[in-house]
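REVIEWER CHECKLIST
Item 1: Sequence provided? yes
Item 2: Single chain? yes
Item 3: Sequence as submitted:
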Amino acid sequence: MILAGGGGTRLGGQDKPMLPVAGVPMLDRVLAAVEGAALRIVVGPPREGLPAGVRTVREEPPGAGPAAATAAALGLVPRAAAGEGPALVGLFAADLPHLTAEGVEVLVAAVAGGADGAVFVDGRGKRQLLCGVWRAGALRDAVERLGAPEGRSMRAVFDGLDVVEVEWTGSGPAPYFDCDTEEDLRRADPERHMRGGA
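Item 4: Structure as written out by the authors:
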């Protein structure tokens, strides 16, 4: 599940997930990192050119925040009780240019011990709540306990869940690094300024 809504206000209202890093839109990078998933869901406004098989949905109302977007995505995930649902679901922001399949697998392995989910933590120990893998049933229960998700925080969603905090020790940049500003984009793509920010 990839959350690709939001207004990109700190980037002048641009469609942030479609901004390129090293020539590839960030949303495409995140989709590639989860290419092996049985189901890939993008939450946000309609976008052309998504890979075949990617499902799309919009949070209600549009712009209602990440908790509402998570609830909308879960509406497309089959329930495990029906014998069809996945055991695990990934929950990722669409502005993670360094997310890779390796990073996703690290999170999957961390959940294997029986926890409800696993998220990366940064160098200050802060949980990166939109870069994690969760047991589908636990995440669905958490969202349902929340009630109306509009405007609610992701911390409220995960409150009370058993969460493994994972430090990134793999090769390459941290998978949880997100791009909210032009400075973030330049850090993710040092040659960006040479191309005039494009």
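Item 5: Key structural point noted by reviewer: The mean pLDDT is 89.
Item 6: Recommendation: ____
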